[in-house]
Amino acid sequence: MAVGDFFSDINLIIPKLPEQEKIASFLSSADKKIENLKSQKKNLEKYKKGVMQKIFSGKIRFQDENGEKFAEWEEKRLGEVCKYYDGTHQTPKYVKSGIPFFSVEHLTSDNFTKTKFISESVFNKENKRVKLEKEDILMTRIGDIGTSKLIT
Fold first, then answer.
1. Cα-flanking dihedrals φ and ψ of residue 144, to 5°?
2. What is the pTM for the complete model shown?
3. Is 136 exposed, middle or buried (0-12, 13-18, 19+ CB in 10 A)?
């Protein structure tokens, strides 16, 4: 059977032109709403970033449920409140199977399902230096700066 013959035998249900126009109008309206929501999200993200800068610089302060000011913030060195480690410095040699290796791409896409693998010996070497545990936070500093992910 020729391709043309195959397609000519397919039955389609097609609405009349006025309904087609209504469908097209509805879908166009939905597309405009989606674009507006994307724009609103982008503007809210900018607003949040600006407010966060003001909060963490102390320009904006909050009050407790009684309207009282909170105590002054303490200044501490990062090492006083947490441990921090630098990640791998060179891209490891990947293998077909082994220990999953997560990188900046995983954090920025928030997708940890597809990964590359490293050998057990490379893993053991890195694991001696830095052992990742549940509730640790991974943060990017190369390629993308500041994206973070809590390890659950």
1. -150, 130
2. 0.50
3. middle
